[in-house]
Amino acid sequence: xxxxxxxxxxxxxxxxxxxxxxxxxxxxxxxxxxxxxxxxxxxxxxxxxxxxxxxxxxxxxxxxxxxxxxxxxxxxxxxxxxxxxxxxxxxxxxxxxxxxxxxxxxxxxxxxxxxxxxxxxxxxxxxxxxxxxxxxxxxxxxxxxxxxxxxxxxxxxxxxxxxxxxxxxxxxxxxxxxxxxx
Length: 182
Prior knowledge:
The chain has helices at about 40-55, 70-95, 100-125, 155-160; strands at about 145-150, 155. By secondary structure, the protein is mostly helical.
């Protein structure tokens, strides 16, 4: 490519030295430095992170987070993550000169779909668990049972509701079930 250098007169914008506008390409000095470095496609990695955090969001109930919103968080995060991954994948394939990540983006998209499918299947499966027919309902009286107390002595529910000598019978009993062995 042949580039002619010329000066432009400020008043009427006519070339003074060399060439004319029709035959000479204008060279932008800021664009003369051509780089081959492509930018990182951060949307891919952010999307994959959000997709992974979706199923892990089910553990929020164990950290004291209110349980009502947890299933929805575990569904929304993978959907938003998949949207970011698809944006990054679109960037990688449509603007491959600027963004990199065609192979990594394809792998991230597949993994995001897997995490989204896992979140949806866990959410749907948890909703399909049948109610226990033998469990007492709220407000229903618990059937009588006998369990060992902390000293190993058997205690029945009727003994707990019985009035102590010289006292008043309790109106309610709080049952606490410990998991594990202490």
